[in-house]
Amino acid sequence: MKIFVPKETEAIETRVALDPVSAKKLIDLGAEVVIESGAGEKADHADAAYTEVGATTTSDRAGQLAAADIVLRVRKPSPDEIAKQKKGAIHVSFLDPFNEPDLIKAFATQGVTAISLEMIPRTTLAQKMDAISSQANLAGYVSVILAANRMNTIFPMMMTPAGTISPAKVFIVGIGVAGLQAIATAKRLGARVTAFDVRPEALEQAESLGAKALRIDLGETSGTDQGYAKELTPEQLEKQRQEQGKVCAQSDVVITTAKVFGRKPPILIRSDVVASMKPGSIIVDLAAEGGGNVEGIVPGEEVVTDNGVRLIGLANFEGRVSKHATQVLAANFANMLEHFWDAEAKAVKIDLEDVIQKGCVITHNGAVVHERFKD
Ligand code: NAD
Fold first, then answer.
1. Is there a catalytic annotation at residue 28?
2. Is 228 a catalytic residue?
3. Is 70 within the bounds of a domain?
4. Within a domain: 372
């Protein structure tokens, strides 16, 4: 089976689908691994590091897209590149399937089996392939480091002969994978952390990391069987915004990570709350790429408001630690292929009855097969 890893095409992308360690794992299974020349450059993996483990490198992107049995990439492909893949080939990447009906159609028309990393079920068995979690964890870390870097104050309390410096007050909204890592990172740096989530179990997890949980009585806020939050009603959202506004006004750093699976992120911080914050304070919005949790955030940019609050809405936070983000993402890819590897056929076996594949295979044999996207 030939696996091809093309170079990412979006300028913002610094990751690559395989690092040499995971490439070797797949070669040891019996796969042939071909990497587009320079694909690992932004993650500090030179072509030679891949050839050393038995992969080959090439500049013939179009030829390899056409020849590969499996294409692994980080970001979704263009329709042009889907049209280059051969019938029966497998494509795995983030696909944003809720917002990309045309792309899904293109995969089906081309007869390519498309696997969406976003749709891998949140089960114990599939944890090793869960790219959303592996990347969110690093994004949470980066959000705090970025805030610390932009501040003109420090995180820890310092008692010095010249007086006492108070610790930074950090407020984390959304305590999922990214939020928990943001709490842990801010605590390690010595900040005083408060956190809020609509899922009560997440508040307990925050407390176990030493954060203070903000408790707001929103009534019924159940989650899905996958551990994701359900969308709040407009009344619940309004109550949340009002109660957390006071905490924002006192915070030096606010980090928002709140997402609702398959939907636009909710607006949790309105402009009046931003206007109430102290000059020099920082909001990092990890949901910015999908639209953002904060009014006034500019996706992909950093802006400073009239009252001196810095709004950081950069995209691809995990891409700022490209080597580690690549390491864990590549491990997710290799674990997935290994899990579905048929040793006799030396190939990945597509089996739509398998619970993991049922969750993440979007198109197969010329049709859209995933229940949520069939229509
Ligand atoms: P996510 O990225 O979808 O959302 C981030 C957080 O935002 C979640 O904690 C969510 O509850 C929260 N949120 C949504 N609306 C909000 C609002 N109005 N206000 C405040 N917070 C809000 O979620 P995620 O980080 O991908 O994962 C969520 C949970 O899924 C995890 O904490 C975990 O329990 C579970 N999970 C399970 C597995 C597994 O079993 N394999 C793997 C990963 C995650």
1. no
2. yes
3. yes
4. no
* Together in a domain, 73 and 185: no
136 pocket-lining for ligand 1 (C-beta < 6 Å): yes
| Domain identity same for 287 and 357 | no
The residue type at 253: V
Active site residue 130: yes
Domain count, the chain: 2
Give me the amino acid identity at 90.
I
Atom of ligand 1 nearest to the CA of 124: 41
Choosing from 130, 197, 252, 285, the catalytic residue is: 130
> Ligand 1, closest atom to CA 237?
18
pTM, whole model, 2 decimals? Answer: 0.95
Instruction: Write out the residue range of the structural domain in which residue 311 sits.
Output: 151-316
How large is the greatest C-alpha to C-alpha distance in the chain, in angstroms?
73
Cβ(122) to ligand 1 under 6 A? Answer: yes
Q: Are residues 113 and 161 both part of a single domain?
A: no
- Choose the residue to mutate in 228, 232, 243 for probing ligand 1, maximizing ligand atoms within 8 Å of C-beta: 228
Per-residue pLDDT of the chain (375 residues; tens, 9 = 90+): 999 999 999 999 999 999 999 999 999 999 999 999 999 999 999 999 999 999 999 999 999 999 999 999 999 999 999 999 999 999 999 999 999 999 999 999 999 999 999 999 999 999 999 999 999 999 999 999 999 999 999 999 999 999 999 999 999 999 999 999 999 999 999 999 999 999 999 999 999 999 999 999 888 876 777 777 788 889 999 999 999 999 999 999 999 999 888 888 999 999 999 999 999 999 999 999 889 999 999 988 999 999 999 999 988 999 999 999 999 999 999 999 999 999 999 899 999 999 999 999 999 999 999 999 987
Dihedral, CA of residue 305, residue 309, residue 315 and residue 317, to nearest 10: 170
| Nearest Cα to Cα of residue 271 among 295, 292, 239 | 295
* DSSP per position, 127-161: GGG-HHHHHHHHHHHHHHHHHHHH-SS-SS-EEET
For ligand 1, the distance from its centroid to the CA atom of residue 237, given in whole angstroms, is 17
DSSP 70-108: EEE-SSPPPHHHHTTSPTT-EEEE---GGG-HHHHHHHH
Annotation says 372 is catalytic: no
Calpha distance 61→206 (Å, rounded)? 46
Quick one: 7 and 118 in the same domain? yes
Probe target for ligand 1 pocket from 96, 128, 199, with the most ligand atoms within 8 Å of CB: 199
The CATH number for 24's domain is 3.40.50.720
Decide whether any atom of ligand 1 lies within 6 Å of the 227 Cβ.
Answer: yes
Identify whether 75 is a catalytic site residue: no
